[in-house]
Amino acid sequence: MLRNCSFSACVMAGVKLDNVIIDRAKFSRSSISGCVFRNVTLRGRIGQLILGGPARSLPSEMFEAFSQALLEFYRDVDWALDISDATFADATIRAVPGELIRRDVGRHFLIRRENRDAVLSMPDAPGLAKAYFRDFDLTPFDTMIAVAAQGSKNFEKQLADLQWLRERDLAE
C-alpha cells in the first residue's frame, strides 16, 4: 500500500502494477505510460493522473508490439483499476480498458470507440466529449472511462458535458 505519497516529475513506463492500493497521492508533472494494472485501487485525493498508452515516440514496430502486449495482458484480468473512491484534480485514463475499471457511475462514464465518429461529427457535442473520443486515436482499447474530476474547479461543467453523452446513449 502507498499512502500519502507525492510523485513530482516522475516517469513510469512499461511497469506492471498488481494488487496495489494507492491511498491519497499527489501526481504532478508525472508521466505514466504503457503500464498494466491488475487489481489496483486508487482512493482518496489523487491529484492529476494521466495513464497513457505506449509512447508515440517509439519506433512503429515497437509501438505495435507494446499495444499488442497490452491487449494480450488484459484478456486474463478480472478487473484492472478501481477508481470508485478516488477524487481527481484531473484524470485521463487511456491505457486501461474501460470495462475493467470499477467506477462511480455518477462521475465516471464508459465510452466506446464505436461512437467516436458520431460524436466527432456532432456540431453541438461539448468540447470535453469530443476530446475524450479523440483519445481513441491514442489507445488500442475499444472502451475508455471519461472522468468528471471531482477535485477540479471545472467539475460541474465536466459533469454536464459527460452527462450530455449519457443522455444521448453515447456513454454508460
List the secondary-structure elements in sequence, H or E.
Answer: EEEEEHEEEHHEH
User: What is the gyration radius calculated from CA atoms?
Assistant: 15 Å
Shape: globular
Poorly predicted runs of 5 or more residues: none
Q: What is shown here, in short?
A:
By secondary structure, this protein is of the alpha/beta class. The chain is 24% helix and 40% strand. The protein has four helices and nine strands.
Account of the protein in words:
The structure is a single chain. The protein is α/β, with parallel strands linked by helices. Helices cover 24% and strands 40% of the residues. It has helices spanning 60-74, 116-121, 127-134, 155-167, and strands at residues 2-8, 11-13, 16-28, 31-33, 36-52, 81-93, 101-102, 108-112, 143-147. The strands form two sheets. Strands 1, 2, 3, 4, 5, 6 and 7 form a seven-stranded parallel beta sheet that branches. The longest helix has 15 residues, at 60-74. It is globular and about 40 Å long.
Secondary structure layout plus pairing:
Blueprint: E1 2-8, E2 11-13, E3 16-28, E4 31-33, E5 36-52, H1 60-74, E6 81-93, E7 101-102, E8 108-112, H2 116-121, H3 127-134, E9 143-147, H4 155-167
Characteristic terms for this protein:
9 strands; about 170 residues; globular; 4 helices; single chain
